[in-house]
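Model it.
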Amino acid sequence: MDIFLVGGFLGSGKTTAIAQAVALLRIEGKMAGVVTNDQGDQLVDTQFLRGSAIAVREVTGSCFCCNYGELEKSIRCLAEEIRPDVVFAESVGSCTDLVATVVRPLHRYYEEDIRVVLSVFADVRSLALVLFKQEPVFRDNVDYIFEKQLEEADILVVNKMDLMGDAEGAVVGRAIEEAYGDKVILYQNSLDAADIRRWIDTVRDFEPGVSRGKPLEIDYDRYGAGEAELAWLDGEIGIDTSGGNAVKIGTRLVNTIHERILAAGYPIGHLKFLLSDGHWQQKISFTSMPGGDGEDEGAGGEAGRIVLLINARVQALPVTLKEMVSDCILALEEEYGCRITEGRWDSRAPGYPRPTYRMS
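Modeled.
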């Protein structure tokens, strides 16, 4: 069984690429499962993938490295349930040090014959900021995590190339080759089937099969500080209307929350929403990258009631982030005279990373 471990910073397009890859593998008669991961326990990505009829397990409440046992359990459950040819394991976007804490333990302790290959995704615009030493979006400790992710990649997937012009992309590409020429580098748009096919084939053909990356030399205090600076929020709300315009109100709420965070000057790691009435689903995502507009996946519809799931990683205090979202909800409820009910919410800063194993 192949385990395609997928790392990379928040908002780099990992889930989109995985969903496209599973669909392509399905066409060729191959079975694939996914393990998602995030700091909260109500994951937009899990629900989105399940809505696309993809077999998913999840590791919640911490990263793979700090909950290795749950990762291995999730892989085994998928192996029993669907007998996959491939398992995609997508780590939380603020996690690094995966070679020492995930790749090596899987090879040492997993009983079956497996291949684990680490792909690290990076938004080409984020890479450009780092390589050309432009004004960073996040504080130094957060950027430290991003740089360490790039350092340990087996395969560096430079994603969202469609958002950069050809001339600028060529300049950035030359800088990437100079900085990371020791790695396998792919340039892709994760909505392009040919690009996804090339990524799948590259991972399959990667040799020697065991990650050739060396464990990082990493400052865990700085890593932990970067994690703590990115507040996590997840929550679920129901929007009920008498006029059948719940989708319009939900979309308005999504944009209002995004605009409010931007106006306050808080950098967005990721801001994800999933709208659903039980029959259709629509995922909307934002980041703080230059020129970054919202990305929509799926298809919406008309409904008198929808459920809206919210996942956010933002460089702000957790209490501030929760208050901003709550204020937006109250304002929309008053404006439209609708009924918005809040389900379970969680807003906090991640704890200090303490890996189950670290094989250096």
